[in-house]
Amino acid sequence: MDIESLRSFLAIVDTGSFTRAAAQIHRTQSAISMQIKRLEEELDSPLFDREKRPLSLSLSGQRLVSHARRLIASHDEALDAFKREDTTRPIRIGCPDDYAEALLPDLLESVRARLNRPITFDVLCASSVRLRQRLDSGELDLAVVTRAPDSEEGWLLKHDKGVWVCGDDTSILYRRPLPLALFDKNCKFHTTALDGLGKLGIEVDLLTFTTSASTLKALVRKGMAISAMARSSLPEDLQIIENGDLPPLPAIDIVIVAATHKHPLVTPSLVSMISQEFITRDIPQLNIA
Questions:
Q1: pLDDT value for 137
Q2: Are strands 204-210 and 227-230 parallel, antiparallel or unpaired?
Q3: Which of 20, 82, 97, 238 has the fewest Cβ atoms nearer than 10 Å?
């Protein structure tokens, strides 16, 4: 099997679309489509279920993913042994601000430990949507993002769930309109919270929406609003609202995604090992109430 065709196949799997894959690997969509067609002819089996939206893997496509990752990892590691690349530049990593405190320290520690060297990180905090754009344009090597629904994007770091949170003064729950402070419109909790409250007939006063987790936590702490955020992002001095009067918030998968053209030290095997480390650490917490 052609390595570049396998690379295109994985780019589609990791990004969830032919369009984003084409942007990441700097090819046209027609060129990628031809590569996938040749792979399907070679394997005598379709790799994607083209009748479903969003794009979904066929059974053969699911089987090919692990083989493709191993083949590309072996190929790239063999090339790296004969190439001299700049491994001293910082690893550029992106992370939504709400995950930064809970996940980034452990992630950076894990990367350094695996590489066994004093690597520097250039960290950008932004929404998942903007981080994907930076990955596609080659401005990031790695990004922590919320996985899109029904997608195989990236390597899993953590299963999490949205929760409603407030400060010490719980009387805020009975104010109408209900004061809210939410993450920006690209956040899964933003639309779910507003839609859910609207269906319950609860009028809201949207104080702010922002990409800054520290801003939301400060407003909630001050008693100016309630908010919706990932359970793992919850600081100790805020409390989960569990009175059942508010709409449920969705479960999410937090994943790490690598750019197609990335830092030479960021190999598929490195990212896979980090994923397994986080999953193993998280196993006792998977059943979130």
A1: 87
A2: unpaired
A3: 82
